[in-house]
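Students often ask why inverse folding is considered easier than folding. One informal answer: many sequences map to the same fold, so there is more than one right answer. In these notes we will look at a single instance of the problem. The structure comes first.
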């Protein structure tokens, strides 16, 4: 066997003095890494004649060679890019991907016998509230590798977590509506209860209002539910309350699409009568009439990063405690401004 095929990703990480996840981000160009750190990794790759594909083949001797992904369901435009990121990352490491949808509420989750666990996977990515805290604690106690995606681990459990800078992204968006567009009566469509992305986006909304001395008005808040149907119903509910508002901030783009339908149904024009903004920058946001102002979240990158952290945990027992990926404000015509970025 040649020296070229013997080098592993662990060897590169050790020589460069970084984590396995950092090596993967540099090689695959899937995340932000400081230039000096990236140069150390590339120097180590050269010095060791490291081949990522040979390393992937070397992983095949593991017990199952499989990564599990636990979801409640697959619905909406958000899941396409997230699954692409997870599948691509899994494939690059030479693992298979096994997906299980619980189709269960958080309350019922503890009563479900999950077919995905230590018996058929080397580690699991848990998305949102798809797995009961008791089961997560059990996996943690037996030292089974777990990474949380868009959900913090239960209190007291040192489990890696990957997510977005939701609060900061929402804060920047509402700051823009107030400071650049002059809106002060801004309605908010929150996401589902118990979902962290929803909670932190609402916190960003509230923080921005407070910073601009605008009193929070509960009558300008309704539940958009992270889907078109509830977004449409939520805006209809807001309009029926009779309280005027100048703009709507939907906590995700799916509910913003429903909000747009409700406003049009009520004979209102966006943005001439009411401005509309969302969060995530899913594919349809570009093609709405008018195109949607939103916050671009690195959905696919988050999926890849969750895989990076899980592989690091499987191979070394170590991973980064928390990874929050930055978001970007995308200005389009739905907020009343000419497009500034696409």
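Output (designed amino acids):
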């Amino acid at each position: 066997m040649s020296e070229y095929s013997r080098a592993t990703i662990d060897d590169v990480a050790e020589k460069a003095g970084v984590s396995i996840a950092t090596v993967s981000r540099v090689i695959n160009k899937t995340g932000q890494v400081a230039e000096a750190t990236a140069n150390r990794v590339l120097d180590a790759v050269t010095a060791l004649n490291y081949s990522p594909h040979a390393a992937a083949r070397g992983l095949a001797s593991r017990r199952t060679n499989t990564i599990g992904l636990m979801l409640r369901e697959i619905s909406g435009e958000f899941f396409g890019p997230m699954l692409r990121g997870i599948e691509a990352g899994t494939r690059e490491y030479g693992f298979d991907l096994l997906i299980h949808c619980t189709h269960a509420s958080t309350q019922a989750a503890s009563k479900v016998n999950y077919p995905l666990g230590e018996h058929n996977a080397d580690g699991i990515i848990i998305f949102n509230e798809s797995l009961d805290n008791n089961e997560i604690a059990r996996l943690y106690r037996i030292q089974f590798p777990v990474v949380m995606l868009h959900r913090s681990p239960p209190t007291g459990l040192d489990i890696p977590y990957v997510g977005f800078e939701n609060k900061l992204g929402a804060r920047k968006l509402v700051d823009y509506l107030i400071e650049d567009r002059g809106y002060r009566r801004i309605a908010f469509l929150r996401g589902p209860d118990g979902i962290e992305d929803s909670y932190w986006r609402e916190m960003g909304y509230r923080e921005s209002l407070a910073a601009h001395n605008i009193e929070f008005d509960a009558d300008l808040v309704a539940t958009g539910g992270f889907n078109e149907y509830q977004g449409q119903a939520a805006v209809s509910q807001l309009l029926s309350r009779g309280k005027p508002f100048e703009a709507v901030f939907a906590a995700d783009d799916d509910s913003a699409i429903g909000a747009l339908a409700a406003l049009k149904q009520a004979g209102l024009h966006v943005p001439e009568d009411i401005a509309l903004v969302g969060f995530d920058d899913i594919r349809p946001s570009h093609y709405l009439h008018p195109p949607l102002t939103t916050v671009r979240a690195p959905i696919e990158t988050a999926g890849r990063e969750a895989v990076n952290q899980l592989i690091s945990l499987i191979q070394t027992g170590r991973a980064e405690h928390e990874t929050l990926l930055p978001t970007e404000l995308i200005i389009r015509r739905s907020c009343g401004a000419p497009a500034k970025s696409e």
